[in-house]
Structure formats: structure tokens, C-alpha cells
Amino acid sequence: MVEFGARPCLRTDNGWTPAHFAAESGKLSVLRTLHSLHAPIDATDIHGDSPRRIAEIYGHKDCVKFLETAEVECRDHRLAAALEGNPLDEVDEDWEAKRSEILKSQLSDKNKHLSANQDKHSSRPVFIQRSCQAQIRKPLHPSYVREQRKTK
């Protein structure tokens, strides 16, 4: 199919490449062919799963072993091509645009959810625990607050 113009970098709506499908079904010969064509076999989908991770999930150990080394070779080839100034056909422009829309939508939904929960718990006292990495804000349980008020 590649001989007739198919692009092995094209993705589905959830970001799967042909390598994801080959890894899911345990088709080592297809993964080898895609790798020989310099297809981006280390690409991740919308959930961050690479073909190697998909092969791990489905228990295709031979594919996982191959993809461990092939991913490194794929990154090395990409770096060498960039240093030489040779552009690679690895980007599905339509999917990248859709991906950014999905990520923006997810971020917006998350912010709405956080602000709704913040309003819900804003009248409750908050205990702030300091750690070396970040501040963790934990709402106190109402029974604990009542006990504290009784002791004062």
C-alpha cells in the first residue's frame, strides 16, 4: 500500500497508527515492515499509549521485545534526519489539529469541574499540609471541626 501512496504516519480519531493495530494483534512481521519504512512506531495515542504499551497489554512478548529496540532506532533515525535537514513524513496534520482541540476541551472540562467542587467546599475549613514538593489542601471533615470547636 505504501508503494501506492499510503502514509504509515496517518492516525485514527484516537491517535492510533498502523503500528498500534499491528501491536494489538501481535503482527510482528507488520511491525518489522513498518520499522523498515521508517514509520513512527514510537508514536503515542491520545491516552499516551505507544505500540509497545499496546503489545504489553495484549501479552505479545515478541512484539514488545522488538519494539523496545525499534523505538530507540526510530528516535535515532529521526534525530539523524533532523541533523541532516531531511524532513520525515511522520506527522498527520489533521490528527494533530484534532488532538489539540480535544486537549483544550479536556482542560476546559477539568477547570469547570474543579471550580464547581471549589464552590461546593468553599465554606468548609481547610487544613494546609506543607511538603517539599507542593501544597496539599485537604478539606476537614465536619465532625473533626465540631470537636475542635468544643475543645476551645
TrEMBL record:
Extent of the ANK repeats: 14-46
Keywords assigned: ANK repeat, Repeat
Region named Disordered: 107-127
UniProt xrefs under Pfam families: Ank_2
Biased composition (Basic and acidic residues): 107-122
Top-rank taxon: Eukaryota
UniProt protein name: Ankyrin repeat domain-containing protein 66
Species name: Engystomops pustulosus
Lineage start: Eukaryota, Metazoa, Chordata, Craniata, Vertebrata
